[in-house]
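cron nightly-structures :: item 1 of 1
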Amino acid sequence: MYAPASTRKWLVDEADHQRLAKAAALIFSSEPEVIAVYLYGSAARREPAADLDLAVLADAPIHPRRLEALAGKLQGEGAPGGPEIDLRQLWQAAPRFQIEVLKHARLLFERNRGLRLEREALVMSRWADFKPTWERMRRLMLDRWRRG
């Protein structure tokens, strides 16, 4: 992860991804509620990134302070001197966010493949149920903006 100090942007290459994955396995393997961890956003798309966006799929909500501590550990192990790590919970997030993460993310850690795939299928099912409502709300909002 290299960046000129003036731009503060990093490109995450394959070696960086492997280092993050190794750090994620080290840190999250001792967190029994964590099912999977994903890299998403610009870094996952291999575009310059100001920070590293990571999503945690867990069985139970993780307290914000605990999440912050985990992000700090991951920063120290997986991205020392690199971009700040922004760690968000996936299961408690809005369906639109969840589906966008799963569509474009790169998996860093999974505790149990079967359980991860089961939860991802549930996210997709929830999005399929919510998508018509989201599209209708979006259309109404855009219509209001056009009318002023």
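cron nightly-structures :: done
The two ends are 45 Å apart (CA to CA).
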